[in-house]
Amino acid sequence: MYKGDKQHFTETQLASMELRKSRTYIKTPDSLKDNLGKGGEMEGSVLYNSYCATCHQRDGRGDESRYPPLAGSEWVAGDKDTLIRLLLQGLQGNIQVKGKMYNGVMPAHGALLDDHAVASILTYVRGRFNKTYNPIATEDVTKIRNAK
Q1: DSSP label of 7
Q2: What CATH number is associated with residue 103?
Q3: 53 domain-assigned
């Protein structure tokens, strides 16, 4: 919007306004530096609190009874394919985590969450509770989901 004297508006002011219109602060994403196609920690945090925190608690320490901790868990820090399968397909029966046996039910989330959401949750859990920043790619989840 031109806020100067309208009586003295010239081609120079118009050119200046056109130049300002063409500037943007939105950059073209870099697929490597911006981790495109990888789960995001911010959305992972929101999804974790919606789908996982009820059982595993917000701090990832579980309930010390039926639901195992994610913080410091060898399952979370271990093989990513196993972790992806666990979230997609669920788990029932005995599971040992950090030397303690748990016998609860981990519901399958594959029908509820798309591949990017699963990747985001697991990226968040690995980074937040295990200090392992090793993002899970959406393609990794798609590969496991389609390998049924």
Answers
A1: G
A2: 1.10.760.10
A3: yes
